Amino acid sequence: MSLSTSPSAIHHSSPASIDASRWQRGNTAAAAAKQLKPFATEDIKILLLENVNQTGRDILAAQGYQVDFLKTSLPEDELIQRIRDVHVIGIRSKTQLTARVLREAKNLIVVGCFCIGTNQVDTQYAAKHGIAVFNSPFSNSRSVAELIIAEVIMLGRQLGDRSNELHRGTWNKISSGCWEIRGKILGIIGYGHIGSQLSVLAEAMGMTVIFYDAVNLMALGTAKQVPNLETLLRGADFITCHVPELPETHNMIGPAQFEQMKWGSYLLNASRGSVIDIPALIDAMRSGKVAGAALDVYPAEPGGNGDYFTNDLNLWTEDLRSLKNIVLTPHIGGSTEEAQKAIGIEVSEALVRYVNEGGTLGAVNMPEVHLRSLTTDEHNHVRVIYIHHNVPGVLRKVNEILGDHNVDKQMTDSRGDVAYLMADISDVNASVIKDLYQSLEGLNCRLRIGEGPLAPCTWTFRALLVSGLRVPETP
User: Fold this and answer.
1) Which of 2, 11, 98, 431 has the most C-beta neighbours closer than 10 Å?
2) Which residues, other chains included, contact 83 with Cβ-Cβ below 8 Å and sequence gap of 6+?
3) Can you list the residues of the chain whose pLDDT is less than 50?
4) CA distance 360 to 176
């Protein structure tokens, strides 16, 4: 349970739906009202791993948080030592936040994944222990889509082989087996943020686009959705995968699927390394069934840069490297300056909103709940954040406690076994807050979050010092 006077940007309607003068007045009022924060921000400790972009680091540092930054990921045992006293951790794709690691994170309240995927985090364990997880589902979509377009052209023209040959001093000017991509059929597996952007780019290059997805989706341009994966495999010249890592997508392209593909077709994967059966791909390329491939992700990937892409990593690595017309890249689909800057901003701002106000919009493992901020103009207010087990009777018990007070606004939602309640209460004093805290903490249905001196349940006792209430920093 958390009690806090919490800030957030005041929400307004789209400017298209209100007149300009009202929009300006609203922005002026929002700027004039000083937002409250739930504690002394300099006490919040943040650990950022894997070279999180400078834009994100700057946003967090500007809040006054203690920001510790490392360029690399950490081995599990070292990570456990470093995570024990931090309240926020920011990672990319290499760091593994397993249940064993999270179990030791006694003060942790939120995880920021500065990437699209969150499979490197045990999100279920985190949710059950009140730890929110945020990611950036949109920001690098364009970068990945552009990489795929580049690789389609590279494979069609065998540019990788020609470049390698010329680097070795061999002049090999040929046209056999080299194709324009205009008029070819691109098959997209997974028509989400990346797949749909790729669809538009491919059509602009003169390609025909078909796609397969687990749900029915509106196609962009003249793209057409096909009813099943087999139809796509039999019809496409170039096949590209853009699906999440799920049990259903594990080795979804294996020996049977390679048999269904056109002779001389091409395969690309910039989604997850578990999606393609790599030994089956090697066999298909050696037989000529697959004329070329581009891989950006692998079942096992090195923890850092260096000469690690060998058979010690995956037993088939050297066989893969020996193939002709194959483009191998080290998980760089989203690695552009533009994408990393956008990701840094998106995730850091989500972390600030959660830490400062408790809002969970965009969280991948929590119910999405948001209330506008409290400001210094709202005297003697408190925000209650109560994360609890989603079982019958909890709201009745909570509202019995809150019912004796003036609840200005309240919102609750549930997701699976976890429920999240936010309520702003006015006309409170130190004694009332202490009673609220003790009463809510006494309920046996709340999720047990952090155990340190800055655990979420103590947010209020720091925040109310800002608004003039003298209350203890710990209950």
Assistant:
1) 2
2) 47, 89, 101, 104, 105, 108
3) 4-32, 450-475
4) 55
Beta pairing class for 238-241 and 265-269: parallel
Which structure tokens are listed for 339? Answer: 């994408």
Is residue 399 classed exposed, middle or buried when 0-12, 13-18 and 19+ CB atoms within 10 A define those classes?
middle
Nearest 5°: phi and psi at 110?
A: -160, 145
What's the CA gap between 61 and 41, in Å, rounded? Answer: 10
Task: Give the integer Cα–Cα distance in Å for 5 and 252.
Answer: 49
Q: What is the DSSP annotation of 179-215?
A: --STTPEEEEE--SHHHHHHHHHHHHTT-EEEEE-SS
| Phi, psi (degrees; rounded to nearest 5) at 134 | -120, 155
User: Between the CA of residue 395 and those of 269, 361, 413, 441, what are the distances in Å?
Assistant: 46, 21, 11, 14
* Per-residue tokens: 128: 């059950």
Residue 127 contacts residue 297 (beta carbons within 8 Å):
no
Cα(116)–Cα(142) distance, integer angstroms: 12
Catalytic residues: 272, 301, 331
Structure tokens belonging to residue 223: 């793209």
Torsion of CA 450, 453, 454, 458, to 10 degrees: 90
Match 């019809």 to its residue by tokens.
Answer: 235
9: which 2 tokens?
Answer: 């940007």
Report the helix count and the strand count for the chain, using DSSP H and E: 16, 16
User: What is d(CA 31, CA 278) in angstroms, rounded to the nearest whole number?
Assistant: 55
| Backbone phi, psi, residue 422, to 5° | -125, 140
Tokens linked to 276: 């393609």
Dihedral angle at the C-alpha atoms of 443, 396, 128, 5, nearest 10 degrees?
Answer: -80
3-state secondary structure of 294: strand
Residue 42 and residue 326: Cα distance in Å, rounded?
50
Sign, Cα dihedral of 125, 192, 333, 48: negative
For residue 291, give Cα distances in angstroms to 129, 242, 362.
49, 20, 41
> What pLDDT is attached to residue 107?
92
- Residue 457 CA, chain-centre distance (Å), reads 26
**Residue 80 exposed, middle or buried by CB count within 10 Å (0-12, 13-18, 19+):** middle
Cα separation of 210 and 219, whole Å?
9
State residue 1's pLDDT score.
58
The predicted-structure confidence for 342-388, as pLDDT tens digits, reads as follows 999 999 999 999 999 999 999 999 999 999 888 777 788 888 889 99
Phi-psi region of 374 (alpha: psi -120 to 50; beta: other; left: phi over 0): beta
- Residues across the chain: 475
